[in-house]
Amino acid sequence: MTSNTTTQKRNKRHPLVAFGLAALAVGGVGAAITSAAWTDNTFFSAPAAAATFDLQGSLDGKAWTQSGNADAVELVIPASQFANLLPAQTRTIDLWVRNESSVNAALTSQVAFASNSTFTTKPTASVSGLITTLTPTGSTGAQDQFQLTVTTPADWAPVNQGKSGTVVVTVSATATS
């Protein structure tokens, strides 16, 4: 009786399993038909390019040089400009900077004597008149004239006679939009 009962149960389950599999198959096909019925795309493209950034300097406002290496400065002010300094003396020269970039440049400056200076008391060196934002070449204000001033103290000690030093002016630029 056990084998007859087991066979009857299997025969009752078979149509249920077959129906379940058929329902899954029809549902899958229906889902595939539904998902592929309508599709569409829209594409966009945009060329992208990095900005150019190049700050140049000049000793006369006409001849421009990159001079971007502190170990090999190409913009060397003639020695005669600051030769034979005396106590309480001030000398000023003009310098130029130009933005050869495709974006604005935010400018800052630093002035210092090189480490090989032999002065006991160094003269004061400063930059004045440097613009803070320089527009790209081709726009108004693409170049700027500023001044380097060297001043010796009124009580400059005699031990500074015959001493020397190199003033290094660094104009730094940061690209801005």
TrEMBL record:
This protein's name: Ribosomally synthesized peptide with SipW-like signal peptide
Species of provenance: Microbacterium aerolatum
